[in-house]
Amino acid sequence: LHRHLPTTDESDAELWALAVTGTSASDLCRKTTTWSTVAPVDALTLTGGYQYQVSGQTLHGKLFLAYKSAEDRLHVWDGTSLRRCGIAQPAAPTAADSGGGGTLSGTRYYRTREVELSGTVVLRRSEPSDTLTFAPDGSHASITVTKPASTGEGATHWELEASLDLNGDYYRIARTIVGTTTVADSVAYGTGYAVSGTLAEDVGDYEPIPSAKYLLVDEDRLICLGSFEDAALAARMAWTPVYNDTGVGNDERITLDPVSYKDLDTYEGGEITGGVGPVNGEIWIFKWSHIYKAVRTGVRTDAYDVIAISKSRGAIPGSMVEGVDQFGSPCVYFLDPRVGPCRIGSNGTVMRCGKDIFTTWQTVNLDAANVVARSLFYRAASQVHWFVATDDADAPDLRLVLHVEQTRDTQDGVRRGWAIWDGPSASALAVCRYADNVDANVARSLYLVPCVGLSTGATILRTDTGTDDNGTSYVAEAETKPHAPNTIMHTFGVVSGSVLGTATAGASVDLSIIRDFGLETITIAGVDFSPESGETQVMVPLDNMTMGELRTVAFRVADAEGGVSARWAVNQIALKQQPEQGA
User: SS3 string of 132-152?
Assistant: First the structure.
């Protein structure tokens, strides 16, 4: 799933979805006001788990898609077709003497490029072909140069470049529509091509982007991480020129001069597993056990400084997400395979934030065959959602939810704020935030809610709506830690209590008082938070609640038995205690 912005108007957002049937079939679709199918120029590889490793990135109104196919190329939706980025290098041209009765002499060097034009504006250009060396026989007036077979990548014209020096400057001497396959060259050797030609661009300026695994955008350039095809590039960070740089099709090419890539320790620590950013001006790149920070330098010949931040922490693929901390400062969340949830704060410090759920984390199946994790940050609720596979599951079956506003920084890392969600919506192979009016065929709302694509059936769920989980009832509950008012050497009794909840019509809970780690439990059913006269908070007395000989007390709040009719919020529980004789 991906939310694509084809314009600067966010109400024009499109929802893109890829559905797969095992290893046999796939459907790539986009929704504007209706759903339509998109046919990629290169079919997705549906074996080896690659069908679950597709990622997208919006830039300049285009949707760049990183996926494995038979071609080692990045792909892009340009509004009309899903094609390969850039244009491949064509083959070398051929040439022959033509125009009898002349005296054209001197060895020439020819090469061709393919270009796409819109009117007179060049949109894309290929690298030059290999060079053809041709020596005219001296008895003809011209040389007829014939273009090679087309690359079939959307070129509208081809360019002929010529030089009198194999290793010298080349000049564009013709730009011709692809339907015309020949160009006649009658330039005298003594005149040369610099007089009437246009200096050609350098070799290495229009390298097509290979099949990267992960994509980011830094201001107006595309950043490509890893590779589906080449193990030597699995730890590579590469980037396109800035959009207003000289040249054309800048978001669809890689330059070799200046060098526009860096290899992050190559094989050490394995392949790149993803990246996030920029966050506070920094791009964060992860391997399974390494973390790197890249910072823009402003220097064209060395665009990024990259340093290793940690070689003992790393991230599971799909688990990295930008969010905010409890203070509202931008930060990065990720799942380290060993210790689970972690956070990189605004000061660049890596902190563990999953100690409170480490028992649950130990059930996560890092060897899941298809998908280990998916993640998103739900801004409206200040929540980080991770969908993970547990035990023997090969796809996510549990959702870990961190309520960031409830977290606290401690000497043990970031603590508190955790909830564990199961049910149908936890089984997500794909997630994104999208407009809450996705079902309406109107301009898209700017209120974005989590949408999940399930692991069974061609179903996309819009979450954070209603009081069930796609028709399945569930029980929401929260349990506090045990509290000891004095010490565990002293007992006390409970004679009465009260609970404070947000006023909501039809909202009710069952409240349990737990003595000494489960030694005894009293449950008060149907605590109702319906308002009586417009109050915003409801205080409900807890009558007939008597319990003695407690050393600790804990509380459990759960959906009232019989089903959920409204959402509830418990804000405070108070007990009146009766001291007893301590032991």
Answer: EEECCCCCEEEEEEECCCCCC
DSSP 218-242: ETTEEEEE--SS-GGGTTEEEEPPP
> How far is it, in rounded angstroms, from Cα 214 to Cα 211?
9
pLDDT tens for each residue of 198-233: 999 999 999 999 999 999 999 899 999 999 999 999
Q: Is 47 exposed, middle or buried (0-12, 13-18, 19+ CB in 10 A)?
A: exposed
Q: Which residues, 6 or more positions from 572, have their beta carbon under 8 angstroms from its beta carbon?
A: 499, 500
| 478-509 pLDDT, tens digit each | 999 999 988 888 899 988 899 999 999 999 99
**Range 87-110 average pLDDT:** 95
Cβ–Cβ under 8 Å, residues 272 and 213? yes
Amino acid 371: pLDDT:
81
pTM recorded for the entire structure = 0.90
What average pLDDT does range 391-411 have in this prediction? 93
User: Which one is predicted more confidently, 565 or 202?
Assistant: 202
- Residue 252 in 3-state DSSP? helix
Residue-wise pLDDT tens digits, 446-482: 999 999 998 877 788 898 887 788 888 888 889 999 9
Query: SS3 for 425?
Result: helix
Distance, in Å, from the CA atom of 487 to the CA atom of 483, rounded to the nearest integer, reads 9
359 alpha carbon, distance to own chain's centre: 28
What proportions of the chain, in percent to the nearest 5, are helix, strand and coil?
Answer: 5, 45, 50
Q: State the distance between the two ends of the chain, measured CA to CA, in whole angstroms.
A: 61
Burial class (CB in 10 A: 0-12, 13-18, 19+), 320: buried
